[in-house]
Amino acid sequence: MSLVDHLRELRTRLLISMAAVAVTTIFGFIWYSHGVFGLESLGEWLRHPYCSLPASARADISADGGCRLLATAPFDQFMLRFKVGLAAGVVLACPVWLYELWAFITPGLYKNERRFAVLFVSFAAVLFVAGAVLAYIVLSKALHFLLTVGSNVQVTALSGDRYFGFLINLLLVFGVSFEFPLLIIMLNLIGMVSYARLKSWRRGLIFAMFVFAAFATPGSDPFSMIVLGLALTMLLELAIQVTRIHDKRKAKRQAAAGWAVPDDEAAPIEPPSTVPPPSTVPLDAT
User: Are the C-beta atoms of 113 and 186 separated by less than 8 Å?
Assistant: First the structure.
C-alpha cells in the first residue's frame, strides 16, 4: 500500500472508532440519570463512594438531606453529564477501537503474528474494564483517607466537576495501566523481548511499576498508589511467566526442526563451494 492508501485506511479506522464512541457516549449520557436494564443510573452508581463517607466528612448542601454534589456555574451540570457519558462511552466502546487499532497494525505483521489480533483485543478489553472496576473499588478507600484526614477541623463540599474529574482520571489510569503486561507479551510473541531478558529486568520493572503508580494516580494518596503498584506487579509477573512458557515451546520447536543453536555455541558455517575457473577465450578467436 502507498502512503496515501495507509492514510485513507487510518482515516477509515478512526471514523469507525469515533462512531462507536459517539454511540456509546449517547448511551452513557442517557444512563447518567436513568436506570437501564434494571441497573441504577450511572450518576448514582458513581456517586456511591462519596455518599458512603460519614456525614462529618462532607458538607450537606441538599435541602432534603440527600447526598448531592455542588455545581457552581449554570453550564456545569450539562458539561459534567457529557464528560461522564464520554468516559463511559470510551470504556464501553473499547472492544471496537482496540480492534480497529489492531486491524490497522496487523497488515504490517507476519501471518503468524496476525493470528493473535482477536485474542489480544479480547484480553485488552477485559484488562481495561478490570482496571476500571478496581479503580472504582479503590476510590472509596482513597476518598475516605483524603476527606476524613482533617474532618474534625473542616468538611469538604466537592463540586461535581472536581469529584467526577478525579474519578474519571483514576478509572483511565488504572484501565490503561492494565494494558502494559499485555504489551510485554505481544513484544515477546513477535520476538522483540525474550524471557531471559525480562527475567534479568524483573527487579527494575517492579521498581518502575511503583514509580509509575506514584506519579500516575491523580489523588496522590498512598492507598491507590500501593494498590496500583501491587496490581501491576502481579500482572507483570503473570506476563513474564507467559513469556517463559512461550520461549520454552519455541525452543522445543526449533530443536525438533534441527536449527536451534545454544547461546554458547557458534552456528555452523558451511565451507564455501569451489568456483570453477573462468573460461579463457583465445585472442585470435575474436
Answer: no
